[in-house]
Amino acid sequence: MRRAVVVGVAFALVVLAACNADAPVAPSKPGQLDRNPNFPPELYANYTPVELPGAATGIVEDISDGGDAVGVADGAGAIWRGAAHTKGDLPFIPVAIANDGTIAGNLDGHAVMFKNGQLIVLDTALSVATAICRCASETIVGSVEVNGVRHAAIWVGGVRIDAGLPPDGTFAEFTAAANGHFFGIAHVPTTNPLTNNTTIAPQAFSWSHATGWHQLLDVSSIESTVTGVNDQGIAVGSEAHVLFPNVIGITYDSLGETSEIFGDPPLLPEEIPDAINDSGNMAGNSCSTPFTLCTSQDASSVALSGGVLPPGNPGDFATSINASNVIGGRSGGKPVLWVPNP
Prior knowledge:
four-stranded antiparallel beta sheet; about 0% helix; about 350 residues; mainly beta; globular
């Protein structure tokens, strides 16, 4: 059964901790850009943007609970460590960081792990790493090419587990993992109940060793995604539904949808959560194009969490949130952390 709730403009914020998180990283300097006047003052979240050093362009892809951030700076892999945000270079493109400092990423078409200063190629086959278990850094997820077809894959201690495809699937990839919970996207036959046309479309799935693949949304979903999950097994993503004019944000449990997140038109017609921490707090983005999922390439998006993240300019994008509610992403085309104000 679909259980819909109207959340409104803001994602809720409740400050708790998980995985023995450190205190929030202190801002090193205030945001330099004026707030976008298109949003009223009360719509802004109580955050300060902190531009990370050493990058004219880039994005933070993930931030650990201790405050270390990884991402892309001027087209190359980068890490920013600690409260001083000391920048270091990485010889690959990172996608996620665990609390012990292990980093998952990609290099020349192969999933890799960077641990204790050692770069480890996880698979000799064409593969992609998408996420890492924050508190169990030996577990990395993504996809691997098998006989020309992409299968969802898990690497545990460098050993691949091939999760294959759901029934009738043509592509599968895990996009989120935490504490034994695995979520991803698979391309499967999807019928639009209004037109009765069937196409191959991406849909959100959960997966387990015991029961295999489970499609999360019903037949009214034209497309759906999963982008993040917390240790409680609550995942976030989005859905394009035949009855709604815009893509909507979704939270899921392992068996299906738990709630729908509606924006507040016309200011924020879509609110798409991109990440969730163990307290249930989310970071995400608002997009303005109907039936276009929020992506890092969507120049119309603004970053959200408890309101619009300042300065609220088009192209700002939130990718991640840690246990202290520090949010990573991009602002003004540069890698940034948004830090909760005291």
